[in-house]
Amino acid sequence: MNIILFGPPGSGKGTQGDKLVNDFNLIKVSTGDLLRKEIKTGSKLGEEIKFVIDKGHLVSNEIMNNIMEKVLTNKNCHNKLIFDGYPRNLQQVKNLENSLLKSNQNISCAIEIKVDKQIIIKRILGRQICSKCSLIFNEFFNPATKDNHKCDPTFLKKRSDDNEDAINKRFDTYKIETLPVFKYYNDLNLLHQIDGENDISLIYKEIHQIITSFAA
Fold first, then answer.
1. Cα separations (Å) of 146 from 131, 140, 143, 149, 151?
2. What is the 3-state secondary structure (H, E, C) of 21-71?
3. Residue 58 has pLDDT above 80, yes or no
4. Whole-model pTM?
5. What is the chain's mean pLDDT, rounded?
6. Which of 49, 123, 186, 205 could bond to 191 as cystine, CB 3.0-4.6 Å?
7. 3-state class of 133 per DSSP?
8. How far is residue 161 CA from its own chain's centroid?
9. Per residue in 145-193, pLDDT tens?
10. Dihedral sign from CA coordinates of 129, 175, 52, 119
């Protein structure tokens, strides 16, 4: 099965996706992770991506589609993907559907995690990522402690684009561009909406039940 996780930046898609990977033996494809990996290479493309992300904008469809094409043609990923952050507009939906058709795959369900903008801002401003183990924490909602994080606290870092101005732009762009995408998957009876302001465990329980219902 292939699953799409929707939600504005800071909605918790990454956290929920990681849990699904472990429980359903899936592979999470995070566009954010793929883009940051390219940035770390120091390539010209990486510099271009960093400039766009730091401004709070989305990278071009061409860049995203090329990156996703490599994933979709990987036989190890066949029908076992969780898409986190893709597709974000109808052009990307068309590219995804065409690529899936070529490789005899499909989308099993799309899940939207809905969260208020002000909560998103607080979540992102408090977000910390361990550069060693990649676990994600939040200073306000889910702080790192000796019990849940074994690495040294000095490994906890903030992303360069986690500032209020960039957050506002990313949230507004997300809402404008993805609204038609929600309608597309809703018309196919594939869209499920989740209250992303609940406790992390309750959100996951609801998502788990949805996926279990068609994975059985």
1. 16, 16, 10, 5, 9
2. HHHHCCEEEEHHHHHHHHHHCCCHHHHHHHHHHHCCCCCCHHHHHHHHHHH
3. no
4. 0.77
5. 89
6. 186
7. coil
8. 15
9. 999 999 999 999 988 778 888 888 888 888 888 889 999 999 999 999 9
10. negative
